[in-house]
Amino acid sequence: MSSRTIFAILVLSAAVVSGAETDSSDAQAPNAEQVAFFNDSILPIFKEHCFKCHADDKSKGSLKLDSRSALISGGDSGSAIDLQQPEHSVLLEAVRYESYEMPPSGKLSDETIEQIARWVAMGAPYPTDMIGDDTPVHESPGTRVTEEDRKFWSFQPVVRPDIPTLDDGGWSQTAVDRFVWARLAEQGLRPNGPASPRDLLRRLSYDLTGLPPTAAMLRRFEADPSERSYLRIVDEFLASPEYGERWGRHWMDLVRYAETNSYERDDAKPEVWRYRDYVIDSLNAGKPFDRFTREQLAGDEVPFAPEHLVATGYHRLGIWDDEPADREQALYDDLDDIVGTTSQVFLGLTVNCARCHEHKIDPIPHADYYRLLAFFSGLQRLGFAVVIRLRRIRCDR
Question: How far apart are CA 335 and CA 375, in angstroms?
């Protein structure tokens, strides 16, 4: 599986789904008994509690209930009714106060809610004059990403800006310097003078290795502070093992690396140090980022190599409750941790906010969060016994 395929899976999993779907169950007309039930039991409820916000020209949340086609087309949260699994209908969740709380003025009586549930189980029949379009086209939940949403700043193509042409007296050596000079000029500031060879080397050493330069290296550079000498020292730092150790820390911070599980016992993660060493070795080897990404997200899908399996330890780095009170809740908390980390680190999006609602900042629909979560749903958090088996497999090979 190529890196391009991995990113395609990630992006398409969180992409906008276009097109529309029709509901085949609309073809079956309601019988007289069903229509009578709607007119006698459901319509009065809608008129008293719903139509003032969800009928005619009023459609809070883009939802109308005054026709069957409008009910099925739904609003901002998708179709209000699930004809395949009626009990999962958003309409029922709302009147039961399980998600939305409708009507907001107060929960309906149990008897009234039971009547609505019975009507939904029938297939939500309406009389002929309230069916609306008899072949309604409706969007699936999560497709309401507008053209305005698509203008979100981070989704725009990269544009090469014009390089400032201010007179800087020859201070700028690169195009980036010109932008720095222009911004300083806006603030009425001027840049500091050149750093001394000693300061320059210390900055370089701390930046690339996290350590101060040796006294011998300082003496050598102060004796010959030329650009050629500087570039030679840069290469030395990049070739040192300390480079991977320094910059590997930044990556491990991003992917929430920890050697224990948190929670009350905070047990150790067996063998997790191997992932740490994998990151350090990858940086020191100059591994391309697309390969680095592919190995962590799907190292078990590429030709076998021990480091590929170690790389998939990425999926086990977060907190882990080894004795959860609610196993299903813990499972989805684990998956949410992976989705949130993957989306932020590899996609630059805070997708996990959409776990509970349409995203309020990034244009990520609620349903797209679960499409991305489905990509990781086959993962199993493995314990020490499996680590022992993996050791044996590695030894056998």
Answer: 10
Q: Which residues pair with 78 in a beta bridge?
A: 75
Residue 143: both structure tokens together? 């497709």
- Comparing CA positions, the residue from 257, 310, 315 lying closest to residue 281 is 310
Q: What is the pLDDT of residues 135-168, one digit of tens each?
A: 444 444 445 667 777 788 888 898 899 999 888 8
Take residue 364 and report the two structure tokens written for it.
Answer: 């990520």
- Residue 55 pairs in a beta bridge with 58
Handedness of CA 180, 184, 186, 187 (dihedral sign): positive
Please report which residue ranges of 316-365 form alpha helices under DSSP H: 327-342
Phi, psi of 163 (to 5 degrees): -80, 130
Q: Give which of 92, 88, 60, 65 is closest to 76, Cα–Cα.
A: 60
Tokens of 101: 């709380």
What is 105-166 written as a DSSP string? Answer: T-PPPHHHHHHHHHHHHTT----GGG--SSS-EEPPTT----TTGGG-GGGSPP--PPPP--
- Tell whether pTM > 0.90: no
